[in-house]
Amino acid sequence: MKSVKEQIVRALEERRNVWSRAGAGADTVATLAKACVTSLRAGGKIFFFGNGGSAAQAEHLAAELVGRYLRDDRPPLAALALGGGGALASALGNDYGFEVIFSRQVEALANKGDVLVGLSTSGRSRNVLEALATGHQHGCITAMFTGDHDLGEMEGVHHLLRVPSRETPAIQELHLFFGHLLCEAIENEFLGSRERAW
After folding, report:
1. How far apart are CA 116 and CA 79, in angstroms?
2. Does pLDDT of 122 surpass 50?
3. 3-state SS string for 155-170
4. b/e burial code for range 158-186 (CB count within 10 A of at least 16 → b)
5. Per-residue pLDDT tens digits for 26-67
6. 94, 95, 98: which is closest to 127 by C-alpha?
7. pLDDT score, position 88
8. 3 state DSSP class of 147
9. Which domains does the chain have, with CATH numbers?
10. Considering only CA atoms, which of 150, 196, 151, 159 is closest in space to residue 178?
């Protein structure tokens, strides 16, 4: 049995390999950031959502935009994590089914031109896919962060970030990294602005 230190060293080597192949995500994040800035300047909003650890990351990323990422010399930016806590999620799940807990919120809150960012390590989370499809039908810009899975054609997804791993922890780590870069790119466009971004 390997020691804890050996396990850590091996994990670091594995992560280094994954990260060395993640450069393709730069183009996706850059184009998504432009779409987010355009939406915010037009009065739109950015919605993040996912399940489990991805839900926690969705809340984290929304907080970076409403609060601050690195700088506080910019206005708060209109971002929200879908989910709404136990009462809303359980009510929607009980009354309509777990697969619509995000799409129902998209119908209620999102407008044409808003940006939806779904996080799903497997790329197969039914409720995330339903929300993206609903948003696409309503004229939203759609994005999904996922792993290196054979998902076929992702119809209705404008920006697909597929990180080069099939292991959930490694996928989540890169999702947070690219999510932070997305927040930084958006924030940089509003530095020094005294105007509201919505």
Report:
1. 10
2. yes
3. CCCCEEEECCCCCHHH
4. bbbbbbbbeeeebbbbbbbebbbbbbebb
5. 999 999 999 999 999 999 999 999 999 999 999 999 999 999
6. 98
7. 87
8. coil
9. 24-188 (3.40.50.10490)
10. 159
SS3 content of the chain, % helix, strand, coil (to 5): 50, 10, 35
Beta partners for residue 117, in sequence order: 48, 143
153 by Cβ neighbours in 10 Å (0-12 / 13-18 / 19+) ranks as exposed
Sheet of 159-162, strands arranged across: 79-81, 46-50, 115-119, 141-146, 159-162
Residue 32 is predicted with a pLDDT of 98
H or E stretch at 41: helix 25-41
Question: What's phi and psi for 48, nearest 5 deg?
Answer: -115, 145
Burial of 155 (0-12, 13-18, 19+ CB in 10 A): exposed
What pTM was estimated for this model as a whole?
Answer: 0.93
pLDDT tens-digit map of 73-108 = 999 999 999 986 788 888 998 999 999 999 999 999
Instruction: Give 130's contacts (C-beta < 8 A, 6+ positions apart).
Output: 99, 100, 102, 103
Q: Which residues contact 77 (CB under 8 A, 6 or more apart)?
A: 40, 46, 65, 66, 186, 187, 190, 197, 198
Instruction: Give me the pLDDT at residue 198, please.
Output: 44
Residue 127 scores a pLDDT above 60: yes
**Residue 126, CA distances (Å) to 59, 98, 122 in order:** 19, 9, 10
